[in-house]
């Protein structure tokens, strides 16, 4: 995973309110049946987590 300033040619853009997520065409398979959630870890810190459905 990396942060990019501009989308690449084969990126697909997913928009959620004020957040845009770019996923390259080759990597889409890894995100099938997955959701991105904002959760608290056992130490009480907030973080983004990928959860398989």
Overall description:
With 53 residues, the protein is mainly beta. Helices cover 0% and strands 49% of the residues. It has a two-stranded antiparallel sheet. The protein has a two-stranded antiparallel sheet with strand order 3-4. The radius of gyration is 13 Å and the shape is globular. The model has no long low-confidence stretch (mean pLDDT 86).
Residue-averaged pLDDT, rounded? Answer: 86
Alpha-beta content class: mainly beta
Number of helices: 0
Shape: globular
Note the main attributes of this structure.
single chain, 53 residues, two-stranded antiparallel ribbon, mainly beta
Give a short overview.
With 53 residues, the protein is mainly beta. It has no helices and four strands.
Q: How do the strands and helices of this protein lay out in sequence?
A:
Layout: E1 11-16, E2 19-24, E3 34-40, E4 46-52
Antiparallel strand pairs: 1-2, 3-4
């Amino acid at each position: 995973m990396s942060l990019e300033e501009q989308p690449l040619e084969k990126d697909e853009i997913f928009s959620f309110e004020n957040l845009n997520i770019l996923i390259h065409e080759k990597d889409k398979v890894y995100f099938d049946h997955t959701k991105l959630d904002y959760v608290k870890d056992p130490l009480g810190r907030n973080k983004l987590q990928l959860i398989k459905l």
